[in-house]
Each structure stands twice: as C-alpha cells, then as structure tokens.
Amino acid sequence: MSKKKENNIGLVETHYFNFSEPSNEFILESGVKLDPATIAYETYGKLNSKKTNAILIAHAFSGDAHAAGYHKGEKKPGWWDNMIGPGKAFDTEKYFIICSNVLGGCKGSSGPATINPKTKKAYGVDFPFVTIADMVNAQKLLIDHLGIKKLLSIAGGSMGGMQALQWMVSYPEAIRSAIPIATTAKHSPMQIAFNEVGRQAIMADPHWKEGNYYDDKRPLKGLSVARMVGHITYMSENSMDNKFGRKLKSNRGIEKFTADFEVEGYLQYRGDSFTRRFDPNSYLYITKAMDLFDAGQGKSLHESLKELKANVLVLAFKSDWLYPTAQSKEIVKACKMAGVNATFCEIDSNYGHDAFLLEIEKEAHLIKHFLQKILNEID
After folding, report:
1. Strand, coil or helix: 127
2. What are phi and psi of 196, to 5 degrees?
3. DSSP 267
4. Which of 100, 155, 162, 174 has its CA nearest to residue 132?
5. What's the CA gap between 84 and 276, in Å, rounded?
6. Model-level pTM?
C-alpha cells in the first residue's frame, strides 16, 4: 500500500491463496474434492503482534475481495470503502481487515469461469456445487494460513450476513464477535422466487448454451434482466419514488416499447453495467447457494448456536423489504435462547436493502462502539 489519500487506505493489491498443497486439500460439502482451489483476498491495516485485531469482511452476492482502497489505474474504490479505512467503522489504524471473494465467484476465486485442469477449458456448469458453508470453510483455511487463531469479528451484509451466521455455527470458537447485517437465517419462498426468476432469465438466453458459452457470445441479455429484477428488490418504494417518480427521459413523448421512464433507463443501465463485471454462471451458483442456506442446519437456530460465546450485533433497516426486520429479529431471538449476548438495532432508512451500503453514518456509529467494546475486553 502507498500513496495514502485523506481518510483512505490508498493503493491495494489482490492476493491469492491456493489450496493445492496436500495439507490444504479442500473437500466440498457434497464430498467433491476441488483441486486446485484458489481464494482471492485483500487485506487492509496491520495485524498486531498477538494477532488479535483481525476482522473478516464477507461480501454480498455481487461483491468481491476488493472492499476498500484503490487498485492501480482505477478511479473507483472498493465496494465498502466508505466503511473501511483510517477512522472509519472498520478502522485500519486499529484493525487488520480481510476480505475474500467467495468460492463460486468470478473475481479471482475458483468458480465456473475457472479453467478445469482436466479439460483445459472453463468449468462452466461442470464446476461442483458450492454452499455458504463451503465458502466459509474456505475462509477458515485462509484465516489459518494467515496465522490467525481467533477473529476479533466477522461482519457482512446480505449474503455477507449469511456467511457471518455460518461462522457463528461452524466455528464458534474462532470468533470473538459477529455483525450480521440486513440478512436472514434462511430464505423465504419470496426470496427464493426472485432468485429463480433471475436464474431462468439467464438460462432462457439462447447464448447460455447449458453454461458452455466461454468461447462464444455470453448470455448477456439474460444476465442483464436477472440483475434488473434483483436491483428492484434492493430498493424501496419510497427510494424509487424519490429518485425517479414518473419522470420521462425526454420531452419527445412516448415511443413504442422503449425505456421512456427514467426508472426504466436506470434499470437497463444497471443491468448492462453488471454484465461487464459478472459471470452468468456464477450468478446461478451463488444465488442457489443462498436459497439453500439454512443457518440452523435443519434444526432450530438456537440449538445450532449453543456453542457460541461471541458477542453479536444484528443490524436491520426499516425499509428493507427483501430482508425485512422480522428476519433479523428471529436471529436475535435465537441468540437469546442460546444464551448468546446479542444486541439488535433497526436503522431508520428509506434506501431499502441497499441501505447497508448507503447508511454509512448511522451504521458506522453502531459498529465503531461495538468493535471498541470487543477490543477493550481483550486488551
């Protein structure tokens, strides 16, 4: 890192952890061996001598390892840059921050677009199915590789919150605290339904070709539509009304089946921009992993949390209808029933589900105080 900007961590690089060594053989929940396997990750701040100040940030569905700072030659910072850095919620002058791209992703970690060593071509849908637990198990091996025995915290929003919950269940002894944000312990039928519409849009694209499109045209239209549907769920009715209302894009009048309204143009823009950075097959794999996620592992969630001794901060947002507050309250209730010290805060916001990326001041205030308390307990 260098060239530090004001209140920013400056230039960063992505690193890669390979599981190819026999001691790090990676077996998926399905029993399939993934070899070789790679995890892309970035780190910010410094690990202290006792290795007690490490925080793992888990990204949401379309995120990646680049959570903060700038890559050389790029003008846009990482996806949570407003939360990670000197003096920010995840203060890099106090904490060592780690963020990795999930298995099944398309930003450096092993996924469908990865070259299969047996065929010398992209895996496509021959890539083995991955679960949220697989993603977390890979993160645990990365943390072990970095020499960290116990994380100060695991934090993440949306799918990142699912990973935080999985850490709470799978590795309770390896975390001092957890911050699940705008998330759920398992998807409702409605949440599954929205993901299924997105998957069907991709698979209905004639360029999908059963997932074998890497040497030809990609199913970009299907991926764009999938993203448009998803993006609607990330906003709230109020935020869409405030941002667009029923404003037209121009004064030329209505044209037949074109994007006449500003909201239509915005959704098309979001869909198109998404196709330039995401792999359609990764969309299929990751959304399916989210749909099948059950933090309680088939039992009552509180039973699965009985081994957890960590402190938990659960955050929700009032206008989030994709992951409504009631689902966060269920997580808190399960923690309480399991004897876990849990705090719940609902943040008043009109941004909908996207609020965890936008309500920085309110979110940061809560997280700062929570993390400082955890840090004080071990100093």
Report:
1. coil
2. -65, -40
3. H
4. 162
5. 25
6. 0.95
Is residue 219 reached through a cis peptide bond, with omega within 30 degrees of 0 on the bond before it?
Answer: no
Structure tokens at 283: 């969309």
Q: The tokens 């759920």 sit on which residue?
A: 184
Catalytic (active-site) positions: 158, 320, 353
5 has pLDDT over 60: no
Q: Identify whether the C-beta of residue 82 lies closer than 8 Å to the C-beta of residue 67.
A: no
Report helix angle 220-234 to 280-292, nearest 10: 40
Q: Which domains does the chain have, with CATH numbers?
A: 15-187+295-378 (3.40.50.1820), 191-288 (1.10.1740.110)
Longest dimension (CA), the chain: 66
CA distance 304 to 285: 25
Confidence of residue 78 (pLDDT cuts 50, 70, 90): very high
The string of pLDDT tens digits covering residues 250-284 is 766 666 777 888 999 999 999 999 999 999 999 99
- pLDDT at residue 21 in the model: 65
Cα(344)–Cα(197) distance, integer angstroms: 32
301-330 residue pLDDT tens: 999 999 999 999 999 999 999 999 999 999
As a whole number of angstroms, the distance between CA 37 and CA 49 comes to 29
Are the beta carbons of 201 and 222 closer than 8 angstroms? yes
Identify the DSSP state of 24: G
pLDDT at residue 138 in the model: 97
- Give the tokens for residue 356: 């965890």
Residue 96 backbone phi and psi in degrees, to 5 = -100, 110
The secondary structure element, H or E, covering residue 140 is helix 132-145
Output the pLDDT for position 279: 98
Retrieve residue 211's tokens: 């997932």
- pLDDT recorded at residue 260: 84
d(CA 361, CA 182): 16
Rounded to whole angstroms, what are the CA distances from 219 to 105, 211, 212, 279, 361? Answer: 17, 9, 10, 9, 39
Q: What pLDDT, on a 0 to 100 scale, did the predictor assign at position 301?
A: 96
Average pLDDT over every residue of 160-172: 98
What are the DSSP E strand ranges found in 105-147? 115-116, 121-122
Strands 342-347 and 311-317: parallel
What is the torsional sign of CA 338, 342, 347, 352? negative
Mean pLDDT of the chain: 94
